[in-house]
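[recover] target loaded
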C-alpha cells in the first residue's frame, strides 16, 4: 500500500494550557476505540497537518496530533522562551493525561524522531511502540552537516541563497550568524533571515524538487517558527547530552519499533538510522530507495503505512 488513507476530519480539537505562557493545539481523529497513536511533527517549528492523520488506518487507530510549543496553531507563535526538549517531553505527558490515554504508539519524523526517542527513553512505560522516520539524533555533527558544511556540497546553488544574507566574515559560523539575526530586534532582517533559512530546508528535503514543500516552507508564518525554533534548539544542542539518544537506547530495548530512512536523505543521513538500529536491534529498519527526507515522498509513505499496519499486528 503506497497511498495515504483517505482524508478525514478531526473528531474534536482544543487548546491545552501547559504553563503560564504556552498553549498547545491538540486534536483527535480516527476511532475512539482504536489503538492510541501520537504523531510528532518535525522542525522544530513546522506544525502538524491534516496529512499526518492519513498515515494511520482511521478504523484501527485513535490518532492524536498536536502542535509543539511555538509551532503551528499553538501560541505564542515562534516563542523560544520556556521552550526546551524537556518542556516538550513534559507536554506530551500533559496531552496524554488530558486525553485519558494510558499508553500509546509514538510516531515522528526528523525532529519528531528526536522527540519520540527522547520521550520513549524518559517514559518507556507509556510507549506501546515507536515508528520513527528520517532519524535526527540531535548531535553537533548532524547540525554542522546541514548548516555549515556537508549538504552544501550537494546543493551549491541552494546553498548560495542560504548564505547570501550573512556577510562573508561571519560565514564560518552560519548557525551563530543566523541565530543573532533571527533573535534580534531588526524585524526586516529577522524575516529575511527566516525566509532564507526555511527555504534552504524546503528545497533540500526531497529527492526531486517539490513545489508543495517549497511553498509550505516559504510561507512567512511557517518560515518564522521553523527558523526561530530550529536555531534556538540547535544553538543549545537540542538540550541533549552528548550522544544521549544512542547512549540511552537500552531504555527502549523492549519496545517494538520501525526505523525508516531515505537512502538519499541529505538532511538526516542514513548512517543515523543505522547507528540507531545498532543500538536498538529489536526495531525493524527500512531503507527506502530513491527517496530523500520528506515524508511526502511515495517510498516513504509506503514504508510509513506498512509500519503502522504491522505495528497493529505486533500489538495484537
Amino acid at each position: 500500500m503506497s497511498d495515504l488513507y483517505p482524508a478525514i476530519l478531526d473528531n474534536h480539537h482544543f487548546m491545552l494550557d501547559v504553563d503560564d505562557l504556552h498553549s498547545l493545539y491538540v486534536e483527535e481523529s480516527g476511532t475512539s476505540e482504536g489503538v492510541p497513536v501520537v504523531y510528532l511533527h518535525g522542525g522544530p517549528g513546522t506544525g502538524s497537518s491534516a496529512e499526518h492523520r492519513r498515515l494511520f488506518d482511521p478504523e484501527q487507530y485513535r490518532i492524536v496530533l498536536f502542535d509543539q510549543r511555538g509551532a503551528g496553531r499553538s501560541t505564542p507563535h515562534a516563542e523560544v522562551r520556556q521552550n526546551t526538549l524537556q518542556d516538550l517531553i513534559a507536554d506530551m505527558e500533559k496531552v496524554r493525561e488530558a486525553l485519558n490515554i494510558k499508553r500509546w504508539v509514538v510516531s515522528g519524523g526528523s525532529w519528531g524522531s528526536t522527540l519520540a526517542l527522547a520521550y520513549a527513553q524518559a517514559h518507556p512505560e507509556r510507549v506501546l511502540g515507536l515508528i520513527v522516520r528520517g532519524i535526527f539524533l540531535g548531535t553537533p555533527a548532524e547540525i554542522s552537516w546541514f548548516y555549515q558544511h556537508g549538504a552544501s556540497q550537494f546543493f551549491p546553488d541552494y546553498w548560495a541563497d542560504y548564505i547570501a544574507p550573512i556577510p562573508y566574515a561571519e560565514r564560518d559560523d552560519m548557525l551563530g550568524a543566523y541565530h543573532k539575526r533571527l533573535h534580534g530586534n531588526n524585524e526586516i532582517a529577522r524575516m529575511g533571515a527566516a525566509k532564507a533559512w526555511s527555504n534552504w530546508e524546503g528545497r533540500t528535503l526531497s529527492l526531486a524538487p517539490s513545489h508543495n514543500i517549497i511553498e509550505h516552507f516559504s510561507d512567512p508564518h511557517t518560515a518564522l517558527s521553523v527558523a526561530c525554533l530550529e536555531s534556538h534548539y540547535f544553538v543549545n544542542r537540542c538540550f541533549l547530552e552528548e550522544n544521549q539518544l544512542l547512549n540511552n537506547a537500552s531504555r527502549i530495548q523492549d519496545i517494538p519499533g520501525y526505523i525508516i530512512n531515505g537512502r538519499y536523505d541529505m538532511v538526516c543521513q542514513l548512517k543515523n538510522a543505522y547507528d540507531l538500529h545498532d543500538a536498538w536491534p529489536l526495531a525493524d529498519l527500512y531503507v527506502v530507495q530513491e527517496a530523500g527526507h520528506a515524508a511526502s515522498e511515495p517510498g516513504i509513505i509506503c514504508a510509513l503505512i506498512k509500519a503502522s499496519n504491522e505495528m497493529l499486528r505486533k500489538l495484537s
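[recover] notes: Residues 141-237 form one domain.
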